[in-house]
């Protein structure tokens, strides 16, 4: 059983428990449920950097990344840095996150928030909306085509953007449908955890231009972004690179400044 299978098996148990604790009607009464979501896809299309920064305490591949930071400070730092949006890990067991992280981030910033989670049930999409997310992540590797369709259509009904993550051509081909906004190519092989930008490059021309192309994992340098931009990528999900520092917002600001250097001032 690989790590992804383990995470999904645990997630099914967790979601069953959560459903018993907080009924759907209670989620729908949340003050945030009727909030108008911001579109990450629209912002990425218009951005010159395309950075989606992440709040991530730990991961199965790297164990602890950073347990010492306050979510509010991280979110506000990212907003001041000018990132396009923020991905918030809400899985507790493997990533040390929670829905409270999403709630705190939402109270702290205005820009789009992505609930980064292993979504296997429509209930989690209602949760995402109730806790202030603007975007949901769907992972093709753990979902049937019918589930991707049902989940993405529910998110669209709720006014949310959908980022679908794929790892290979088979996943991409089964997943392309009009209810998606962004197609994310994960450069990390979820079975071996090896990372290669070649995955993003090889799949780029298979993604129709109707979707915003996002590259995820292993993007730790300006060079990686400059390598991928000619392939049509407008979004770059960066987690560990900023989170492993003491001030993720400052790191993000410096990173974005290198992508968009100031124009030289002309003399009079």
Supply the key terms.
268 residues, alpha/beta, TIM Barrel, eight-stranded parallel β-barrel, two-stranded antiparallel sheet, 12 helices, 10 strands, 17% strand, globular
Could you please describe the fold and organization of this structure?
- The structure is a single chain.
- 41% of the residues lie in helices and 17% in strands.
- The chain is of the alpha/beta class and 268 residues long.
- It has one domain: Alpha-Beta Barrel (TIM Barrel).
Category by helix and strand content: alpha/beta
Major sheet strand order:
1-4-5-6-7-8-9-10
Tell me about the biggest sheet?
8 strands, parallel, barrel
Text of the CATH class: Alpha Beta
Contiguous low-pLDDT stretches (5 residues minimum) are: none
Whole-number mean pLDDT: 93
Write the layout of secondary structure elements.
Blueprint: H1 3-21, H2 24-28, H3 40-46, E1 51-55, E2 58-59, E3 63-64, H4 71-81, E4 85-89, H5 99-108, E5 113-116, H6 122-130, E6 135-139, H7 145-157, E7 161-166, H8 169-175, E8 182-186, H9 198-203, E9 212-216, H10 222-228, E10 233-238, H11 240-243, H12 248-259
Parallel strand pairs: 1-4, 1-10, 4-5, 5-6, 6-7, 7-8, 8-9, 9-10
Antiparallel strand pairs: 2-3
